[in-house]
Amino acid sequence: MKKLTDEELRKAFRYWLIKYTAKEAEEPLGPFLSEKIKPFVIGDQGWLKTARKGLFLSAATVAEKLKVARAAYSKYEECEERGSVTLATLAKAAEAMDCELIYAIRPKSKKYFSNIIWEILLPLSLLHPWIKKCDPKKRGEALAHIADKFMNDPGFRKKQGWSQSHFQIYFELGGFPEVLKGEPFGRYLRELSSLLKAHFEFQKNHPIKELLIITWDEIENLQIDTIKIKVVPVWMWLLAY
Q1: Average pLDDT in the 23-51 region?
Q2: Which of 4, 9, 201, 231 is the most exposed, having the fewest neighbouring CB atoms within 10 Å of its CB?
Q3: Among 134, 162, 190, which residue terminates a domain?
Q4: Same domain as 153, residue 129
Q5: Residues paired with 211 in a beta bridge
Q6: Are residues 181 and 200 both part of a single domain?
Q7: Which of 6-15, 41-50, 157-166, 176-185 has the lowest mean pLDDT?
């Protein structure tokens, strides 16, 4: 088989990225990928001292604004350099200097999360037999489809140590997948939101095989990834459950 061209690989990534389900997690990451932004190193001068000196503020002045003793504020600066200060303390101290705390976690490779996931999926996807059998003009689309299959495969996700459902990512980030806002899920949006959040929380210690939504007169079977959801009327629930 002829090797995929760089353009085909770029096309595959673009197609796959549409289905990448953690865009909300990486959208704020971009500004922090610059080489100019250095990572935190224990022992280096902290930002509290750096900002205070840059603004010509004394430790006593900042302590007064925080309504703490000067010695207590000096301890904040020492704790920051040791890596033992809390984010809440940093934020309050920054506010006292009319500044704000900016906080991020980025990959050491300084790549977007999606690029890292793609690099895991790509080698396996290129070995898939579908690539050899598909229309040569659509190898990019085929590669994206294969990568998406791997990304959503429970066994593969478990092996990688990923969350078992890619929908779980949305709920951990406080969002709700667009695909679940359409039919038939849209009719039960409020119930699904609470039910799935509870499911992802409790499944860590108590695996749940089936979820239940009780309605007045509706009967329906829903499935989201591997999660089965029964919609039953209240009279049926009283008789059967």
Answers
A1: 91
A2: 201
A3: 162
A4: yes
A5: 229
A6: yes
A7: 176-185
Beta strand 227-233 pairing with 210-215: parallel
> What's the structural domain count of the chain?
2
Percentage of the chain beyond pLDDT 70 is: 85
Asked whether residue 184 falls in the same domain as residue 152, the answer is no
The structure tokens 């990225």 sit at 17
Identify whether 72 is part of a domain.
Answer: no
Task: Report if residue 69 sits inside a domain.
Answer: no
Instruction: Tell me how long the chain is.
Output: 241
Pair (175, 233) in one structural domain: yes
Instruction: For residue range 182-194, list pLDDT tens digits in order.
Output: 566 666 767 777 7
H-helix or E-strand spanning residue 221: strand 220-224
Domain with 149, as residue range(s), is 6-32+108-162
Predicted confidence band at 168 (pLDDT cuts at 50, 70, 90)?
low
Q: Are residues 234 and 117 in the same domain?
A: no
Contact 52, 62 (CB under 8 A): yes
Residue listed under structure tokens 């990486």: 26
Give the position of tokens 């509870």.
198
Peptide bond into 39 cis (omega under 30): no
Task: Say whether both 142 and 173 belong to one domain.
Answer: no
The answer to whether residue 84 is domain-embedded is: no
Amino acid at site 74: S
- Tokens 């205070």 -> residue: 52
Q: Which residues of 141-170 are buried (b: 16+ CB within 10 A; e: fewer)?
A: bbbbbbbbebbbeeeebeeeebeebbbbbb
Nearest to 86 by CA among 66, 97, 101, 96: 101
Angstrom distance (rounded) from CA 80 to CA 44:
9
